[in-house]
């Protein structure tokens, strides 16, 4: 029985490594799959792991249709036994629905990997839909750690080393960037993410210009 699997965890918890391992395990048993990703840190149409492993992938754009792609491929004589879908948080809700349809109507396993929430601690639409539809949801046991030693649960975005609280949801960056001027991410426990988020918002309010008096 085919299933829709969702593997989730913070940044730096090994999701992409597990995606590559999952593909390797199935391919080693003679199964044929397709690998998809979106906005990977290594560039377009590649699935990369922080361990240095990479694999060619199909880039999922906003208008990509999984159902049409799979049906067209099968109609043209291709064999597909499973799909590996990395960075699934960036997929649209409609694309997650398409993946569920592939599982249900074509009996094809789908393995999706992604983080739950953005830098504001708000859930990505794609991840929210996966939580709603997945047959199995797995929180990765390889724990990324906050600087305090607690298990990291949130992803903070920094620019010039300063945590930001506003901006575009999709901005590609990595954990522990060498260049502080670049967009970077830091994994934090809930407590320290909340404290830093509150402090940065308070600072932004204090720096806001005073309204001009009337008269």
Report on the structure:
The chain is an alpha/beta fold and 215 residues long. It has one domain: P-loop containing nucleotide triphosphate hydrolases (Rossmann fold). Helix content is 30%, strand content 22%. It is built from five helices and twelve strands. It has helices at 15-27, 66-75, 93-106, 125-133, 190-207; strands at 4-8, 33-37, 46-48, 54-56, 58-59, 82-85, 109-114, 136-139, 154-159, 162-163, 174-175, 184-188. The strands form three sheets. It has a six-stranded parallel beta sheet with strand order 5-2-6-7-1-8, with helices on both faces. Helix 3 (93-106) runs parallel beside helix 4. The longest helix has 18 residues, at 190-207. The radius of gyration is 19 Å and the shape is elongated. The N and C termini lie far apart (74 Å). Residues 177-181 have low confidence and may be disordered.
Largest sheet, spatial ordering of strands:
5-2-6-7-1-8
Q: Can you count the beta strands? A: 12
Structural domain count: 1
Residue stretches low in confidence (pLDDT < 50, at least 5 long) are 177-181
Fraction of helical residues: 25-40%
Give the structural class: alpha/beta
Distance between the termini: 74 Å
CATH topology heading: Rossmann fold
The best one-word shape is elongated
* Name of the CATH superfamily: P-loop containing nucleotide triphosphate hydrolases
DSSP summary: helix tally: 5
Identify the notable features of this structure and list them briefly:
215 residues, alpha/beta, Rossmann fold, 6-stranded parallel sheet, 30% helix
